[in-house]
Amino acid sequence: MCNIPFTNYTLDFKGMIDYIFSTPQSLARLGFLGAFDSNWVAQNKIIGFPHPHVPSDHIPIMAQYAVIPTSHQRAPPPPHALAGGFPR
Questions:
Q1: Cα-flanking dihedrals φ and ψ of residue 66, to 5°?
Q2: Tell me: the pLDDT tens digits for 16-28?
Q3: How many CB atoms sit inside 10 A of residue 87's CB?
Q4: Which GO terms describe its molecular function (predicted)?
Q5: Cα dihedral sign for 23, 24, 29, 32?
Q6: How far from the centroid of its chain's Cα atoms is residue 12's Cα?
Q7: At residue 67, what are phi and psi to the nearest 5 degrees?
Q8: How wide is the angle at C-alpha 58 spanned by C-alphas 17 and 29, nearest 5°?
Q9: Residues 7-17 pLDDT 10s
């Protein structure tokens, strides 16, 4: 999990709309592209993207994974172990 405050940054909306989903049983995350430096955004008085330095209103997200061999994969947790679970 990574704490990026937004992946879309426009004049009237700033929030998360882009995600990377993965399965921890079969993929080990090696790294990810971090968030924009909030000081850089403030110093440049950026009120939204696109911007000359950021050509899209969607901020790039990226993660690097290693595939866990089947012989080393752990079993997924039982359904009742999910935090909050689903209403029945």
A1: -115, 135
A2: 999 888 888 889 9
A3: 4
A4: 3'-5'-RNA exonuclease activity
A5: positive
A6: 21
A7: -75, 130
A8: 70
A9: 898 889 989 99
